[in-house]
Amino acid sequence: MELGYTKLVIDENVSTKDISPDGNGRYKFYNGKWYAKTLPSMDLYSDQDGMLAITQGGDLVSVARDFSLGRIPLLPGRDGFYVEFEARMTRDDRDNWPALWLMPIEHDKKKTDHYPGDPPGFERWMELDVHEGGNGPGITGTVHNWQGEWPNYDGRQNHNNVSRRRVDPTKFHTYGVSYDPIARHVTWWVDGVKEMSAGAPEVPEIASRQHFYLIMGAQTHGKRVEYTMIVRRIRAFVPQSSQLPAER
Asked: How far is CA 215 from the centre of its chain?
C-alpha cells in the first residue's frame, strides 16, 4: 500500500441479511440516505451467487438515517485511509449512474460540520466519490470541498475527475480511493492502477477532523435504463497506528 495503509479494518462480502429491514438495529447497511424524502423499495436488493445485487434505484448507507452507527466502522480522516469496492454492472449504458462514495457523519441534520470561528450556520465538509458511472469511458472520481450555509452551499472539485482510460463496467473491477490528510492528497485507483490524483484546495483541511461512512447506489442520469450493480467485496485500510480494530 503506497501510503502505508496496511491495517485492514473493513472486509465485507455483503448480502441482503446485512441490510436493516426497518432502518433500526446494528446492521452493516441501511436503506436510503438521511435526506431522502422517500426510501427505495427493499425489493431493489437481492443476493446473486453470494454477492449483493442493487437494482437501479437502490441506495445503501453504512449508518442509519438517524446517524446511529452500524457494524461497519467510520473511517477517521485524521488517520487517512484507502477504501475499495469490487463491483460490476449488468449493462454498459451512459444513462447508468452507479455511485460508490463516502460522506462524513458530521454533515447531518444538526449541522455538526459547523466549527468554532465559522459564521453562524456555516458548514464545511468533504465528499469523496470513489466512482460514478455514465460520464466517460473510464471512472469518474471526484473530491468535493463543500462549504457555506444551506441551501446556498459553494463547492470546489477536481476537474481531472473523468478518466480517459476505458473500463468495461460489465466486468468486475476494484474501484479504490486513498486519502492522505497530511499532504491533503486524494488518489483514485482501478484494479490497483493509479488513475488520477487531486490536492489542495479541492481536498479540504477540514476532512482531517471528520469521520466517513460508505454509500452504494445504483442511480440514473434521467432515462431510467434498468441495470443492476453487483458488489462482491468492500475493503478499507488505515495506518497501523490507527485505533480502529483490525479485521480478523
From this structure: 5
- Give the integer Cα–Cα distance in Å for 121 and 108: 13
Determine the residue type at 201.
P
Cell numbers at 27, concatenated = 446492521
The pLDDT tens digits of the residues spanning 112-134 come to 999 999 999 999 999 999 999 99
201 φ/ψ angles, rounded to the nearest 5 degrees: -90, -5
Backbone φ and ψ of 96, nearest 5°: -65, 135
Q: Three cell numbers at 206?
A: 477540514
Which amino acid is present at 197?
Answer: S
**pLDDT tens readout for residues 167-184:** 999 999 999 999 999 999
- Cα R_g (the chain), whole angstroms: 17
Q: Are 214 and 73 in contact (CB under 8 A)?
A: no
Torsion angle in degrees (nearest 10) through CA of 170, 172, 173, 176: 110
Q: Kind of pairing, strands 193-198 and 30-31? A: unpaired
What's the rounded Cα separation, in Å, for the pair 53 and 218?
10
pLDDT at residue 197 tops 80: yes
Beta strands at 211-220 and 96-104: parallel, antiparallel or unpaired: antiparallel
Is it true that domain 7-99+111-238 has CATH number 3.40.50.620? Answer: no
